[in-house]
């Protein structure tokens, strides 16, 4: 076994995270967990509005028994630490353990703090945004604040449903239960808060400066490529393609832009070749290469 290690390039061997990166991950997971705690104790729970997942179950059980909410959140998530460790990895499990611990402590410490609002609509909107921001930050830095998705990943291997469908089914059950416990108007507020949180998570994960990929096929590929470089300041790559129907060789332009540049890109393509094929798709993350914008005149 020792001979095989000697032939492996040093840069391919797994390297641990630096202390600075570990500190950054811990900091942001703590920030995200505290934000979720603020959402739960300052907006949602005082107005009898639920989150989905294990947190939603914890809120219902805490309301029915009078036992501390943070205790339920921590205890009910314990099985998922082990599952996460087995299915995803040690780093994920430790990050999740940190997030859940900070969340449980936050809800306990914030329980007696005066609530921000008693208006259920304001609590729904601001609670949903704060909740989504907190969860999004934790996910972005490699952790989780709820075991539902881990459970869904396991169930997905045995059931003919996607992870998203399993999570949605689980949450529908929770919100129906909330209707019986807190009343149906509060259950509907809970669904609205969940939707707002879901959209906020996407925003936090993707960032405000969302990137897009563009694929352009045109006879005027050279002109279009030069125009994108000069007028948008974005680099382009020319790819070789072949039409399946005609067998003709084609040049394909590939470039990455921000969502704010999409309209200008379309106008450039329309101006130089109104018959060009253009496809634009969302990209969740861009790294490396020369994505940095060049200066334009």
From TrEMBL:
<keyword id="KW-0472">Membrane</keyword>
<feature type="domain" description="DUF2179">
    <location>
        <begin position="234"/>
        <end position="288"/>
    </location>
</feature>
<dbReference type="InterPro" id="IPR015867">
    <property type="entry name" value="N-reg_PII/ATP_PRibTrfase_C"/>
</dbReference>
<keyword id="KW-1003">Cell membrane</keyword>
<feature type="transmembrane region" description="Helical">
    <location>
        <begin position="60"/>
        <end position="85"/>
    </location>
</feature>
<dbReference type="Pfam" id="PF02588">
    <property type="entry name" value="YitT_membrane"/>
</dbReference>
<feature type="transmembrane region" description="Helical">
    <location>
        <begin position="121"/>
        <end position="139"/>
    </location>
</feature>
<feature type="transmembrane region" description="Helical">
    <location>
        <begin position="22"/>
        <end position="40"/>
    </location>
</feature>
<feature type="transmembrane region" description="Helical">
    <location>
        <begin position="159"/>
        <end position="181"/>
    </location>
</feature>
<dbReference type="InterPro" id="IPR051461">
    <property type="entry name" value="UPF0750_membrane"/>
</dbReference>
<dbReference type="InterPro" id="IPR019264">
    <property type="entry name" value="DUF2179"/>
</dbReference>
<keyword id="KW-1133">Transmembrane helix</keyword>
<dbReference type="InterPro" id="IPR003740">
    <property type="entry name" value="YitT"/>
</dbReference>
<feature type="transmembrane region" description="Helical">
    <location>
        <begin position="92"/>
        <end position="109"/>
    </location>
</feature>
<protein>
    <submittedName>
        <fullName>YitT family protein</fullName>
    </submittedName>
</protein>
<dbReference type="Pfam" id="PF10035">
    <property type="entry name" value="DUF2179"/>
</dbReference>
<keyword id="KW-0812">Transmembrane</keyword>
């Amino acid at each position: 076994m020792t001979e095989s290690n000697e032939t492996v390039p040093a840069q391919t061997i797994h390297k641990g995270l630096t202390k600075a990166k570990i500190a950054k991950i811990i900091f942001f997971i703590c920030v995200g967990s505290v934000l979720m705690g603020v959402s739960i104790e300052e907006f949602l729970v005082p107005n009898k509005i639920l989150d989905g997942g294990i947190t939603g179950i914890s809120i219902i059980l805490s309301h029915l028994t009078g036992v501390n909410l943070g205790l339920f959140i921590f205890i009910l998530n314990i099985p998922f630490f082990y599952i996460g460790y087995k299915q995803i990895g040690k780093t994920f499990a430790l990050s999740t353990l940190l997030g859940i611990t900070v969340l449980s402590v936050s809800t306990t410490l914030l329980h007696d703090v005066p609530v921000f609002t008693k208006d259920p609509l304001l609590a729904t909107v601001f609670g949903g945004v704060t909740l989504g921001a907190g969860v999004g930050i934790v996910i972005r830095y490699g952790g989780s604040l709820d075991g539902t998705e881990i459970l869904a990943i396991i169930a997905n291997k045995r059931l003919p449903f996607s992870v998203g469908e399993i999570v949605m089914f689980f949450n529908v059950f929770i919100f129906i239960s909330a209707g019986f416990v807190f009343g149906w108007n509060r259950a509907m507020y809970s669904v609205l808060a969940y939707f707002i949180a879901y959209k906020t998570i996407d925003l936090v994960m993707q960032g405000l400066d969302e990137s897009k990929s563009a694929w352009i096929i045109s006879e005027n590929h050279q002109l279009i490529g030069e125009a994108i470089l000069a007028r948008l300041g974005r680099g382009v790559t020319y790819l070789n393609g072949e039409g399946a129907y005609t067998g003709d060789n084609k040049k394909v332009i590939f470039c990455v832009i921000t969502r704010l540049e999409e309209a200008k890109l379309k106008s450039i393509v329309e101006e130089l070749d109104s018959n060009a094929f253009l496809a634009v798709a969302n990209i969740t993350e861009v790294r490396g290469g020369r994505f940095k914008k060049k200066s334009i005149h």
